[in-house]
Amino acid sequence: MASETREVGESRPPHEPGTPDFGGLAIAIGLAAMAALIWWDASSYPVRRSYAQFGPEIFPFLVAAGLAVFAVATVFLAVRRRFPPREEMTYPPVIWVAGAVLAEIAILTFGLGFILASGTLFGFAARGMGRKPLWLTVIVGILFSAVLYILFRLGLGLSLPTGPVERTLVGLFR
After folding, report:
1. What's the pTM?
2. pLDDT for 52-68, tens place per residue?
3. Spatial separation of the C-alpha atoms in residues 111 and 125, rounded to whole Å
4. 75: CB partners within 8 A, 6+ apart
5. Would you tell me the crossing angle of helices 114-128 and 134-150 to the nearest 10 degrees?
6. What is the pLDDT of residues 67-88, one digit of tens each?
7. What residues have CB less than 8 Å from 143, skipping those under 6 apart?
8. 153 CB contacts (<8 Å, ≥6 apart)?
9. Read out DSSP for the chain?
């Protein structure tokens, strides 16, 4: 196939007739793997029976079953070559989002807390989606994360990773 130049945003030409969409098959394998992992993990949850004859442990099984259905449907679409043409991949947004996840992991590892980690995740991911400036998206993310922390920690009594910001915030509300 001859090399062609395409404009930004222009979709790729369809793949060769008679061959399955290998990208679609890869997506189906990923969906099936996630379904299997969720099912396997959920099978280790303790069973809590109630008057309804099942408890919250059923929901991971429902999610896994839904992912398995999507995996099978994706295989059919890939084999029948029914996927719409995909655009050329642009790497900077992927790098920003992957960096967001790595930054959150690093911030949590160093004990800086939920608010800074989630705010950084929000800001970097927003930057990957095209929002600028980065400093503003991180500040907005930190503010939203602070509200969520207060709601989860003080409203619902959930335990979230704490750092200096969280200790100060909880101190203000006591």
Report:
1. 0.63
2. 666 677 889 999 999 99
3. 21
4. 24, 25, 28
5. 140
6. 999 999 999 999 988 877 878 8
7. 119
8. 159, 160, 166, 170
9. -------TTPBPPPPPTTS--HHHHHHHHHHHHHHHHHHHHHTTSPP---TTS--TTHHHHHHHHHHHHHHHHHHHHHHTT-SPPPBPP-HHHHHHHHHHHHHHHHHHHTT--HHHHHHHHHHHHHHHTT---HHHHHHHHHHHHHHHHHIIIIIS-------HHHHHHHHHT-
Whether 57 and 46 have beta carbons less than 8 Å apart is answered as yes
Token pair listed for 22 = 């290998």
